[in-house]
Amino acid sequence: MDEVSLEVHEVSKRFGSVTVVDRISLRIGAGEFFSLLGPSGCGKTTTLRIIAGFVQPDTGEVFIRGQRATHLPPNERDVNIVFQNYALFPHLTVEQNVAFGLEMQKLPRAQIRERVGWALELVRLSGLGARYPHQLSGGQQQRVALARALVTQPSVLLLDEPLGALDLKLRQQMQWELKRLQRELKITFLYVTHDQEEALSISDRLAVMNHGRVLQVGTPQEIYERPATRFVADFIGESNFLEGRVVACEGNRALVQIGSIHTSVVSDHPLAIDQWVTLAVRPERIRLCPCGRSPWTGQVEELIYSGKETRYRVRLSPEVTLVVSSPGTNGIGVGERVGVEWDEPSLYLVDAHEAHQ
């Protein structure tokens, strides 16, 4: 990371007896599209509000472009924010809404007109400046909110679930628009969402949060392909989990016994004999095969065909059921016995427990 645009260092926040943000540290590069992803109540919006200056942290510091900003009021921070509910002034026209921040800066009228025209063209709303918010669609109102936030040209744009009020198709269109705007302007975007697919599709990097803590930071591919914890593996996409016991170790490779079957796994962390571990494999990484080709065999209990894929629920034993996702359909029906297989790199470790004594 060549230049850090935003740094959050050991920030914590409690409301009463509840710790909402717990010692979070982040370093976000200039011009990066970074997302905070997690379930409702995980602390991501509070983190955003601390960065914006609306909430004071109990501990820790916020730095914007290398300058300490922890105790600065919101209007003195080089950031702007876009809310889920747009927060437009209903009694002002589109142009007046967009111009509001510039007028607070007391810029000359000619410069304000020029910057407002630039911002409306940027979000593809040229010609709608005289309308009022109630005369616009939800998507158009969100574009006005974006234009109002971008017109002041902040170093960091904070976006708090900005597409949450839109329907699916419009939300997907706006994802493309946000990515286009961010690339074109080279502004740092910090984006809060609980939508896993959205975070994976638009982010350069993301942080997965739960219970006020950051569990993992990485690129979408890193987090999807190699989740660091069971929570991350389960929250990002879908995973099958297998519990087993380590029976042999050599270097970073371990042999794990799951029921009566042995499988090998590569671990970034040292493992010990008799240690219990949780392994995970994504449904789309599993293949159905003839029973004799794999030690993993079972019966198809259910299947769901959705056009682009067929999802199978395969019962391997009373304790183990796998969900398998296959493109199209392959003629396998409910009740049939099948084998399942996967390439070794598709199986990864997500949890390790103390070795049994």
Mind sketching the topology for me?
Layout: E1 4-15, E2 18-29, E3 33-37, H1 44-52, E4 59-64, E5 67-68, E6 79-82, H2 94-104, H3 109-122, H4 138-150, E7 156-160, H5 168-185, E8 188-193, H6 196-202, E9 205-210, E10 213-218, H7 220-225, H8 230-235, E11 240-250, E12 253-258, E13 261-266, E14 275-281, E15 287-289, E16 297-305, E17 309-315, E18 321-327, E19 337-341, E20 348-355
Parallel strand pairs: 3-8, 3-9, 6-7, 7-8
Antiparallel strand pairs: 1-2, 1-4, 4-5, 9-10, 11-12, 11-14, 12-13, 14-20, 15-19, 16-17, 16-19, 17-18
Helix pairs in contact: 2-3, 2-4, 3-4
State the secondary-structure class. alpha+beta
**Per DSSP, what share of the residues sits in E-state strands of 2 or more residues?**
35-45%
Please report the total strand number as a whole number: 20
* Mean residue pLDDT: 91
Question: What portion of residues is helical?
Answer: 10-25%
Query: Helices and strands, in N-to-C order?
Result: EEEHEEEHHHEHEHEEHHEEEEEEEEEE
**DSSP helix count?**
8
Q: Largest sheet, order of strands side by side?
A: 6-7-8-3-9-10
In angstroms, what is the radius of gyration? Answer: 25 Å
Give the overall silhouette: elongated
Spatial gap, N to C terminus = 45 Å
Sheet having the most strands: 6 strands, mixed
- Residue windows where pLDDT falls under 50 for at least 5 positions: none
Task: Explain how this protein is built.
With 357 residues, the protein is of the alpha+beta class. The protein is 24% helix and 37% strand. It has eight helices and 20 strands. The strands form four sheets. A six-stranded mixed sheet has the order 6-7-8-3-9-10, with helices on both faces. A five-stranded antiparallel sheet has the order 13-12-11-14-20. Helix 2 (94-104) crosses helix 3 (109-122), helix 2 (94-104) packs parallel to helix 4 (138-150) and helix 3 (109-122) crosses helix 4 (138-150). The longest helix has 18 residues, at 168-185. The protein is elongated and about 80 Å long. The mean pLDDT is 91.
